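Justification of resources, computational component.

The compute hours requested in this renewal are based largely on the per-chain cost of generating structure records like the one below. Each record pairs the submitted sequence with a full structure-token output. That output is archived, and it is also reused by downstream analysis tasks.
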Amino acid sequence: MLETIKEIILNAAEGIGEVANLDSASKGEIGNIITAADKKSEEIIINGLNVKFPDCRILSEETESEITKDNFKSFKLLFLVDSIDGTTNYASGIPQAAISIGVYEFGQPKCGVVYDIFNKDLYESEVGKGLFLNGNKVGKRPTPILKEAVVGSSWAYAETPRMLIKKWEKLVGKVATLRVMGSAVLDLVMTATGQFTCYIHNSLKPWDSGASLIILKEMGVMVTNWKKEEFTIFDEEIIAAPEEIFNEFYNICFKER
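The structure output for this chain reads:
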């Protein structure tokens, strides 16, 4: 299955490279856009999945679906698809955007594939087998102390950044720096590989976390929602860090000042 998914993602990446018109249209919220490349990528992925796995179900960013938090565990084979995560980056030529497919069987994670469009890096992970980058197994980096941590976050839409900014303010003087890169999928992968030490966000969707959650867990990163409960793909709020410093990072973000 994993080889088939990789092939489909690479086909999608090739397909969007042929899209010359990157004019964008708003999806309703300020900053939330869609381009012809998003549509082309999703078309290739959905067609490919339906051909290879005719009985599958698909939950994707650009296509409406009846799949919800209440029923997703009832599906034998579910694909979570983000045709381009970081669309604003992609349309602007900022080299931080990805294609992502996560696979779940009756709600349980099976495997995830993320393709970094600009760097042409392919991340793949099966439950229990670790993380591979371009065919090479990725090792775990040493965990720095929190004062040396590089924290990743995201600027979402509508009013959600206001809530995040309050968390960012609490990190001033407590961590080395904070980065907002514009692709939640790649942010989570970078947290898994240790490029980001910690990560916090409050506007994730299932297609953002579908593959990346598998990758994070395979690399031993601790992941919860903002209530410090086990994170699920339908949670919007996430906090992630190595286990050794997770509680310290969480307490800084959520303690009352």
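Residues 10 and 115 are 8 Å apart (CA to CA). The first helix runs from residue 2 to 16.
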